[in-house]
Amino acid sequence: MNTAPTRNGSGQNGSGSKANGTLDALIIGAGVAGLYQLHQLRAQGLAVRAYDNASGVGGTWFWNRYPGAKFDSESYIYQYLFSEGLYKNWTWSERFPGQPEIERWMNYIADELDLRKDIRFDTTITAAHWNEDTRRWTVTTDSGETIDTQFLITCCGMLSAPLETVFEGQDTFEGPIFHTSRWPQETVELAGKRVGVVGVGATGIQVIQTIADKVDHLTVFVRTPQYVLPMKNPRFDKDGAAYKARFEELKAVLPTTFTGFEYDFGPTWAELTPAERRARLEEIHADGSLKLWLASFAEMFFDADINEEISEFVREKMRERLKDKRLCDLLIPTDYGFGTHRVPLETNYLEAYLRDNVEAVGVRDNPIARVRPEGIELADGTLHELDVIILATGFDAGTGALTRIDIRGRDDRSLREEWGKDIRTMMGLQVHGYPNLFTTAVPLAPSAALCNMTTCLQQQTEWISDCIAHLRARDGAVIEPTAEAEEAWVQHHDETANATLISKTDSWYLGSNIPGKPRRVLSYTGGVGTYRQKCAEVAENGYTGFSIS
């Protein structure tokens, strides 16, 4: 960890607002979105403060410090692009660095922009209620602090509400249980231990491949296997000159591509011969990035036959490495297509299962029944004795961070209750019925899942900052999307999403990992560049679809 953040003992922040008083804007979260939002609104002269329940900055990169946590977006694109100096004065060590380096970068951002004085750490926002009389938000923290603010901006992250208590009897286990996104800051000793990992999504994969050669015995509980792509992670020159020279290029390209990465889809499937298609798949697979998923053939998201051919290509690559038929049956997907789930990058993940001390246990047909004091018991009564349990059991994605707060809008309507029935937003930026509530990384925008997060979060926070500036310039006090505009966006979102195979595949992309959660593709699937243009058009036309008063 870096040094502890400085605090102002007077209870004042840099904008002169009191700790238990009035703000122009309150930001929930001090991660990628929250830090940049704070910087922008402070530059407008607003009295603004960010709150975070962590003890330091970083958001995702503060909490996810589990073994093996790292980028799978290239480091030189997972960056802020509003300042060339900020970009070039930080040098990454490699293409996909690990969590400690990423957390240091987040602290660098906070220090360079002098943001800490306007952040309250170790503080959880518990409630936010719209006051009809004052037309402002009353926000409450877990310490009893009450803040009156004109604007409330949520920068909570799309994967920040972990599913921690998922099995009966977890509190009876005699050893430690860790959820990956709540990994302790102190060192966890796994050497010589019998460790169980529950879950083989992107996070579970990073943990498994990292600890397999360190523990005495590793038991992996596999329910839904994943298509995986091998990561190539070269180190950069000491000064990073090669990628830094591309600053202007990346600044121009990233906001316009389909997913906010530097690469985009190439020739169509129909334009190439079978031999040419195979050659392109081989070339992209060898790149060691997410390019096969995000920049090979767009048709794989719409055409089941094309998707199956690409899926079989990836399965073939996985079979070559696993060899063992039982492991292939357990770890290679066959009941859904490549790219319709989140695609993980990995380093010798499949080879970990070939070790004598690693056991893969299928729990789709024989699920985990409960946790016992000695370990994990399956439905058939089999008990796997363990010293440590690691839960890579995922999140209540997109909505969970906000539904865990008591947010109430006009007429005391509850966001938790409304999203429990139907998940709706206006472009993932506001919600009808909740005036002056701005949102980032929530459903119906690319930032909910299908985007290089810094690309999308920068765009959303810039739109929000510009919107607030516009409102203030015309002496407006309140902005809210109309019901009609929100409905039109929901329909457009659904029409776009329902044309894809993603909408036909159970995963957290649809919220299907949460019992009772309304089924809707969480992320806008029309593309980052298209979404950006639509947001720009709304602003250029005087915020059409929004009511300003």
Q: Explain this structure to me?
A:
This protein is of the alpha/beta class and 549 residues long. It has a domain of 292 residues: 3-Layer(bba) Sandwich (FAD/NAD(P)-binding domain). 30% of the residues lie in helices and 16% in strands. The strands form five sheets. Strands 1, 2, 3, 4, 5, 6, 17 and 18 form an eight-stranded mixed sheet that branches. Strands 7-16-8-9-12 form a five-stranded parallel sheet, with helices on one face. A three-stranded antiparallel sheet has the order 13-14-15, with no helix packed on it. Helix 1 packs parallel to helix 15 and helix 15 runs parallel beside helix 17.
The chain-level structural class is alpha/beta
The helicity comes to 25-40%
The number of strands is: 20
What is the CATH H-level superfamily of the domain at 22-161 and 397-548?
A: FAD/NAD(P)-binding domain
Radius of gyration: 23 Å
CATH architecture of the domain at 22-161 and 397-548: 3-Layer(bba) Sandwich
Number of helices: 17
The first-level CATH class name of the domain at 22-161 and 397-548: Alpha Beta
The largest sheet, given as strand count, sense and whether it forms a barrel, is: 8 strands, mixed
Mean pLDDT: 95
* Beta-strand residue fraction: 15-25%
Shape annotation? globular
CATH topology (fold) name of the domain at 22-161 and 397-548: FAD/NAD(P)-binding domain
The end-to-end distance, rounded to whole angstroms, is 46 Å
Brief synopsis:
The chain is built from 17 helices and 20 strands. The longest helix has 21 residues, at 453-473.
